Amino acid sequence: MKFKADEIASVIQKEIEGFEAQIDVREVGQVLEVGDGIARVYGLSGVMAGEMVEFPGGIIGLAFNLEEDSVGVIILGDYLAINQGDEVKSLGKLLSIPVGDATLGRVVDPLGNPLDGKGPITTSDSRPVEIIAPGVSERQPVCEPMQTGIKAVDAMTPIGRGQRELIIGDRKTGKTAIAIDAILNQKNTGVKCFYVAVGQKDSSVAQVIEILRENGAMDYTTVIMAGASAPASLQYLAPYSGTAMAEHFMFGGGHALVVYDDLSKQAQAYRELSLLMRRPPGREAYPGDVFYCHSRLLERSSKLSDALGGGSLTSLPIIETLEGEVSAYIPTNVISITDGQIYLQPDLFFAGQRPAMNAGISVSRVGGAAQVKAMKKVAGGLRLDLAAFRELEAFAQLGTDLDASTQSQLDRGYRMVELLKQGQYKPMHVVDQVLSVYAGTRGYLDSIPVEQVARWEEEFLQFIREQKREIWSKLDETGELDDETDKAIESAIGDFQKQFDGSQ
Q: Is there a domain that residue 3 lies in?
């Protein structure tokens, strides 16, 4: 029998080319102890902070504490299914979630798993949950208005695309209502909205989703939910996940709005995780890096430079205070990170002023740069006037005699307060807001009884839309209040006053 050397060589050559090493190289460790959503793992010496690890049954964890001889892991799932001695393997990748158009209209958990029973989210795009925020050179100043549809907010504390405006106040003062109104007002603007519910009752979140659905807002909104019954690890992660989903649109040149409801609960979840990990507690038992926890989240909201597509991510973080204590640890932290705050006061809320916004403490650090020019012109001194009115009102309650000018200032203040009241989930078009504020600040309501102001406003806006449509259209097109438009509005108000019946 004769061997054919060249045939044998070619077979060996083929085998070598087609050879694949089936060696499974990965780092594994062992669970030392587990409980309260935390596992301490021995043996993962090469694992990095924030890296994903996998427990038996496909349960995912996140390397949180890197200690000398063990690793503290937060468990993102059912920790009751994990036992001491279980094998843990590091996955060598960061936590990522699905992003893109497929997520719109869905209710998901912070890991991107659907909670709405509408089947899996089919998208090939994903983004890491945590990234480094855009740097100074990658941003541009905030200059484009983000209309909330709320007169008091758009006139006195305007919000721009790329801004972070804090909504702060005690519980049950209408914080979520302002954020929901802002989402509803983004209809037909192309802005994608993300509502992150952290530590909220499931019934409250279901109510919010129903309101969004009724108003057609779920078409462009994603709800990221880590309810009160969710593990602390998911409550801590939820805001980062919501931001990652929103960033997909921002880096694609689009505009997004994200609402964190609320960051007080996220801070509490982070405190719980840190204390379980035996990290040293600081003020109010929060860990020392709780400021970084919020700053690295909120710094991701920005208006990107034109070179990067000019996209924007606007955020409305919500903070709940206790007994109006704005100087507590978490409120002061977040106030110092954000570009202004809308402060809601309980006594104003119970007095029937909704939104219960305190004009003195509320501020927008972007200010008029993010305002329609017409609104800037008519609402220029409104915030200061209202703050002065509140002081005068307190003084007038002492029962002293007031001179005529003080009395007239008080009378106008009462009418402006009445004018700035607005029904829940009824955002107004910016042109309607300009016309309303114009009538109030220029003194055209001074002769109208306070209880008739709301009806006057409603009928006046209807009159403009039906009989003076050209004024409305011009304001909508230009966004400016020139002398000609000013005179046209003035004569329109004069015509309307003649037909308005204040006796009803």
A: no
CA 319: distance to chain centroid? 11
Q: What are phi and psi of 473, to 5 degrees?
A: -65, -40
Q: Is residue 9 part of a domain?
A: no
Beta-bridged to residue 194, according to DSSP, are 222, 258
| Chain segment 213-272, per-residue pLDDT in tens | 999 999 999 999 999 999 999 999 999 999 999 999 999 999 999 999 989 999 999 999
> Would you call 94 helix, strand, or coil by DSSP?
strand
**pLDDT at residue 1 greater than cutoff 60:** no
Range of the domain at 41: 28-94
Backbone φ and ψ for 194, nearest 5 degrees, come out as: -135, 120
Neighbouring CB atoms inside 10 A of 124's CB total 7
Q: Is the dihedral of CA 176, 178, 180, 183 positive or negative?
A: negative
Quick one: pLDDT band at residue 24, thresholds 50, 70, 90? low
Using pLDDT thresholds of 50, 70 and 90, give the confidence band for residue 281.
Answer: very high
- Is the domain of 190 the same as that of 83? no
Distance CA(137)–CA(9), nearest Å, equals: 60
Q: What is the pLDDT of residue 25?
A: 62
Distances (CA, A) of 336 to 112, 187, 327, 498: 31, 31, 11, 50
Catalytic center residues = 365
- Whether 192 and 81 map to the same domain: the answer is no
